[in-house]
Write a structure and sequence with these properties.
Length: 174
Amino acid sequence: MLIAVYGIVLLGLGLKFGWRNALIITSVPVVAVLVSLAMMGWFDQLFSLFNLFALLLVLGIGIDDAIFFFIAADKRDSTSLAVTISALTTLLAFGLLAISSTEIVHAFGFTVAVGILTALVLSPLVGRAWGYKTLSRRFYGQRQNKVGFYLEVCNLFNGLLDAFIRPPCKRRHL
């Protein structure tokens, strides 16, 4: 099941970013999952269905981190800060699960924490090595109109989120 999910993700990324770039992006969660499995074996951890779900979570978060660093280009500092803070809060949450006395909860938290830590360490390497030149050639050259459309949709979505999440702003006095 896990291999099928990785295949679907690779297919989607291949259609969006190209096959070479999809392999580069997908390499981060693949290595993170392999390190998680290796650490589970090293520490003689329980493997159950919950660990499989944890590995799916590592896939999702690892892909997000890799894509963020892959397309960061000139916004590398803010991307690094955002991804690092996100990963550290995720590590805090799942690290607390890893110290649970319940074996299944401990195994779930341990698996996710190790996978997220590995993805956090590997994601900047993928972005720095291949992301900027390859992506800028592909998206900022031929596909300028589509990128502009995607940015407009993202700005609209962020505006809607801000309208519901942020407190109402103070009105200016005329």
